[in-house]
Specification:
By secondary structure, the protein is of the alpha+beta class. Helices cover 11% and strands 20% of the residues. The strands form four sheets. The chain has a two-stranded parallel ribbon. Strands 2-3 form a two-stranded antiparallel sheet.
């Protein structure tokens, strides 16, 4: 277990892991891993890796409390704030990150979805104009 906790998550991992009979976690490269490469494993079940990036990120944010920034997820870029001329929006992971202001309630500014921090594991927030998605 100790060695596996040093492996970061990726939705396109270069290592697989298994639990042995002696409760040891065995980590093995599943494709070309060179000296100095970061070893990555998936925190998702194999079938969950087939989900699209939004669904994978939703699962990871609610279960593991992080917004995945692996190369595979970055192929689907985060939204930009249209009122602020495409300024990148910050990610707030519900249950992990502090909300922008005390007593803050995130209602989407572009659709009728309300109370985003209870509806989703994460949401996007523009630090400039307070737009939310």
């Amino acid at each position: 277990y100790f060695a596996a906790c040093f492996c970061n998550h990726s939705c396109a991992p270069n290592c697989d892991w298994t639990l042995s009979d002696g409760n040891l976690i065995l980590v093995a490269g599943n494709r070309g891993v060179s000296a100095g490469d970061e070893l990555t494993i998936s925190y998702l079940e194999p079938q969950e890796l087939n989900l699209d990036s939004q669904q994978r990120r939703e699962y990871l944010s609610t279960s593991w409390h992080f917004h995945c920034q692996c190369p595979r997820c970055l192929q689907s870029p985060d939204p930009t704030c249209l009122p602020c001329l495409k300024r990148p929006m910050a990610v707030i992971v519900s249950g992990r990150d502090d909300l922008p202001q005390p007593g803050y309630v995130a209602d989407c500014t572009t659709c009728p979805k309300d109370y985003l921090q209870c509806r989703h594991g994460y949401f996007f927030y523009c630090e400039s104009c307070s737009a939310k998605l």
